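Field: sequence (string)
Field: structure_tokens (string)

Example rows 1 and 2, in order.
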Amino acid sequence: MRVTLAQLNPILGDIEGNSDLIADAINKALFEGADLIVFPELSLTGYPPRDLLCFPDFQEKIARGIAVLLEISHRSDLYILVGAPLWVPEIRQFTNSVLGLYKGDMCYVQHKILLPYYDVFDDRRYFCPSPSAASFWPMNGHKVGILICEDAWAALEPNRYAANPVADTMDLGVDLLVVVMASPYEMGKSEKRRRHFQDMACHYDCPIVMVNQVGAHDDLIFDGSSLVITKEGHVKRAFSSFRSEIDTVSLCLAQGFPEQGPVVAGHVEGEMYDVPEEETLADMYAALVFSLKEYVHKTGFSDVVLGLSGGIDSALTAAIAVDALGASRVTGVAMPSRYSSRDSLADAETLAHGLGIGFQVVAIDTIHHLYETVLPDVFSSGIAAENIQPRIRGNLLMGVANARNALLLSTGNKSEIAMGYCTLYGDMCGALCVLGDVYKTEVFALAKWRNRGVPVIPQNTIDRPPSAELRLHQTDQDSLPPYAVLDAILQDYLDNRLSTAALETRYDTETLSHVLSRFHRNEYKRRQSAVIPRLRRTAFGTGYRMPIVGMMP
């Protein structure tokens, strides 16, 4: 059997465009002599379609899209497995389904059994679970089992669900297991997926084809990284991350896959995978570049604008923007105040010239002075006097972005956003906060990684103590613990979910109390943040649902 894996990048809600992508992939599969083509979860609509599913017009578009797919299959001698929502009239709800199409007929349907309702997932809000048990599609004398995303993860979290679709499907004696996914990116998750499916293939002595969506929608990033795994647990084919790819693989199901090319050893129970630091940084950087490129393209823009302070966050954001869009589509604006150092302006200019981006300088002193003149009691000193400066800058940047029909990028990092060390309607202005899930210590590490080979971020920017420069001789550590300490606390509290009692054994009590109280006090700011590309499960976004008003946990 020859199987084509179509790792596609659909646009949410673009039924017609996604149908064209599917048709093109089918034509390629036919040209390559494939017997079966497999598409990701909800390829017709993109995943997650969310409240688009609630609109009658969109429901009609889905029905027309499925009719188009049936017509496409009628014109081809190819088995097709494609993800699409199916309307169930009796309960007036959709199922998340995989349609088995052959010669114009819907010969087989597999509905998603387990509907996740945690983190960024809201499947239970929109879909009803499969009304039937696991099954298989008889195809050319073989039994092909199909699992849809969460159904394939059940074995890893046996306490979350009562059912185990993996075991139920494999008990049917399938010859090939096909897994269709829209599995969002997280740091280290592609490795987790690979090991999981290697374990599964070895345990059930069955080859696995896994096809994952690629693309980025809002805060979610989908890396693709589709796999073909032999029944011995070896990786026969690993698809690229962060780009569309269509390829055909020959399978010999009766004897497993022939051993060709390099293989990757299966998982050993209890083994801990330790990703090398440089590999982790490269993966993070690639995800951020991809997310920015996708966000700008899919929102219909081409150019971006950002403030260049001469600091590390704006420098790294600018480098990511150039790598995503090209230098000609990026404009940096330096907006020095009376408190800005000469080094800051010089570093911003050096960065802009090194990257080859558009650059202009707009001093804010005149505007700042007008505010002090109009309301001297408010803007003469204190926090209001400091915050009016980033708000002036935010207004200017929004104006430049509007004039250029460009998107404004916010340049804050996760450490600052967690602490509320940022200004609403000031440096928080923007459509996308590129580094919003990157801790400050990681910002420095990524900047150094990006500088390997030909440095573009000035070394002085990396070496200087971070400062908002909103008053004389200010540094970040006037208000925050050293970033190495702060990030360690935030990672233990947010990512590792340690209790306060456990944290108190690791950190100074006064510092810990300051960090946690400030963290919870600033939830209202995070709720108004620009979109933050998700690198972790604890990203501030759709998967993070903390009340603004309430007591600390």
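Row 2 begins here:
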Amino acid sequence: MFDEYPRPQMARGQWWNLCGPWEYAFTDTDAAPSRWDGTIQVPFSPEAPLSGVGRSLGPEQWLWYRRQADFSDAPGRVLLHFGAVDQRARVWVNGVETGGHVGGYTPFSMDITDALDGGRRGEILVAVRDETDLSGLARGKQKTKRGGIWYTPQSGIWQPVWAEAVPENHIRALRITPDLDGGCVRIDGEPAGATVHFQGNDYPCPAVVPVPDFEPWSPENPKLYPFSVTLGDDRVESYFAMRRFSVENGRLCLNGRPYFHNGVLDQGYHPQGLYTWPSDQAMVDDILLAKSLGFNTLRKHVKVEPLRWYYHCDRLGMLVWQDMPNGGGKYRPDVIQFPVLAAGFRMEDDRYARFGREDAAGREQFLTELDEMIGALYNCPCIALWVPFNEGWGQFDAAQVRRHIQQLDPTRTVDHASGWHDQGGGQTKSLHVYFRPYRYRPDEEGRAVLLTEFGGYNLRVEGHTFNDRDFGYNRCKDPAQFLEKLRKLYAEQIAPAKAGGLSAAIYTQLTDVEDELNGFVTYDRAVVKLPPEEVRKIIAV
């Protein structure tokens, strides 16, 4: 299960896959369990069918995991890695607390060497709390009481767990920044003193590595360049791509030229695994489906995927808009729903109570998790744009957050307030339009105009639905009607808008998700509702 190395841009030779059966227990206190409830298949959450558990973690409960691990053939140090654990985690090895993490979407690691016994073996114990929407932590589309656009919550370990052997002095991080205009790539490493190996040449790190006669990366030509880095006895394999994202003359540009981001919303839910993909191939299949439909962009909606998902976008050629998962308190309808019908309505987002953000510690935690997400994904060539806030869900100080992101990563564009509650400034103007025709208007500030959600046409396919609910924005009775409505939508609204200056169009959505039946493919991925060749013709505006 999950035999592929989890971190493709910093891969080592000796590693241990710790996915598979673990013991688990639910408790009502923070005391370690005296007995175990059974076996769970990690990294599937207990709520996911593939976990083998079929039980939800309550907000007042603890979820415990335990397994034995043998690192007797490991030289040097042993690092333990968690792809993501929702939401609060503590970790012990042989009874020694070795680390922990707050936040359900970002990876964390720890050195467990000193806690292992003399035979380099250890009992790994993990305790998890998950309050879902009852705390201010990032939660995305999870809701304690699911329904409509809010989905079944999941908890605990939901991305791969793994370990690797490293020497005492080892590479801890890489930062890869392509310079298209300079014909080179800058590679920074932590700690200093490493050596970069590229095309038969060695460069001391931090290195500015020339890339002669390079091929620019694009969805049409996803050229990747492999390289390696060594530090003493430590060696990691990695890759980069030569590409540049910018906004010029009010247009999104790729490699210095206007490039229309013709995309689809992608939420990454699966009925058998919820947040967790059933397999590596399942990730590939969804990306290839989007490409077969003619899309060049996926907006990864309020979820952070495993690193292998981004690797597949890198190698297959798919632009990614990366949302930050939303958090905060309870959302008010006048903030998150009224703007759907009231075009141009906006609020100042320093009104923290109205946006569910009155808790100062919660705002700080959001920024911490945002920084972790950007740090974890910075090197991925596919990511073109960061989206910190969507439709006012837990939004606060979006203009300041935009500036913060641009300082962290000046190489990408930021959509600071997707949909509404635009706070002005920056390089983009973002709109969601569902219940009225869209007509392009240039932004008064000269920013690139992005249609970041639209469409949402739903078609029910009997035998391939989550339940008897039928949520969507424009119902279709059969595939023929769906196809005709889609053709009219792109011909009458998107094509004229693109000709007028629109920079991006993100259709809702790639797959059905629970109550939502507005995907191009059913939730179980069994039925593609429209012929891909016909969709390609329609969206090629």
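free_text_note (row 2): The chain is about 15% helix and 30% strand.
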